Amino acid sequence: MKLLEDRILKDGNVLGEDILKVDSFLTHQVDFELMQAIGQVLSHVYREAGITKVVTIEASGIAPAVYTAQVLNVPMIFAKKHKNITMTEGILSADVYSFTKQVTSTVSIASHFLSADDKVLIVDDFLANGQAAKGLLEIIGQAGACVAGIGIVIEKSFQDGRQLLEEAGVSVTSLARIKEFKDGQIVFAEADA
Ligand code: G4P
């Protein structure tokens, strides 16, 4: 997605060896026009897939997910990282290990929001090692729902996430794919859309 790649080049900052800071339009401040465009592209890719729900994980997946859900005209559900007092029963959950933070957290979705009739599109902001998406696959599997695909805003293709997800039999659509950070510069691989 050229618009996204151009924005990454303009406003993204490489931190250290393998982190891209995009907090001015995606992970902290959100550019709704760019998110709308992302929603248009992802929904177009999956328009014939019979999607009934879009699922993401808080916090930074929510913006691209909600704009995708709007175009598909289906609900967006975000997995929570902390149970709140209103989540009293029927919780689907999975442990997610973050290689970046080296912590395991439990992510949850109330079971009445997903059923065996659902066909889910997962959307997330980053694909690095794929652990967040793997946790979502587990939760969606617990509900007996099926996953039609995974839409990613920025994939770091030098990490293992895509391989892990494709080995699990799920198709991945990444709008920007970063092959490497060479001398602090961003080098893209060919994106999926
Ligand atoms: P994984 O889910 O692919 O295995 O990713 P990993 O454990 O490596 O990453 C943990 C968190 O860091 C995730 O967000 C992920 O989106 C984010 N992340 C990974 N690589 C980058 C990067 O290069 N740049 C930025 N900005 N974020 C990255 P999270 O902890 O769930 O945070 P949030 O969604 O609440 O903001």
Give an overview in words:
With 193 residues, the chain is of the alpha/beta class. It has a single domain (2-189), classed as Rossmann fold (3-Layer(aba) Sandwich). Helix content is 28%, strand content 35%. The protein contains five helices and ten strands. The protein has helices at residues 2-11, 32-45, 62-72, 131-142, 161-167, and strands spanning 13-15, 19-21, 53-57, 76-79, 91-98, 103-110, 119-127, 146-156, 172-182, 185-189. The protein has a six-stranded mixed β-sheet with strand order 4-3-7-8-9-10, with helices on both faces. Helix 4 (131-142) links the parallel strand 7 (119-127) and strand 8 (146-156). Residues 19-22, 27, 58-61, 98-100, 125-132, 156, 161 line the site of guanosine-5',3'-tetraphosphate.
Fold blueprint:
Blueprint: H1 2-11, E1 13-15, E2 19-21, H2 32-45, E3 53-57, H3 62-72, E4 76-79, E5 91-98, E6 103-110, E7 119-127, H4 131-142, E8 146-156, H5 161-167, E9 172-182, E10 185-189
Helix pairs in contact: 2-3
The protein binds guanosine-5',3'-tetraphosphate.
Residues 19-22, 27, 58-61, 98-100, 125-132, 156, 161 line the site of guanosine-5',3'-tetraphosphate.
EC number: 2.4.2.22
Pfam families: Pribosyltran
Catalytic activity: XMP + diphosphate = xanthine + 5-phospho-alpha-D-ribose 1-diphosphate
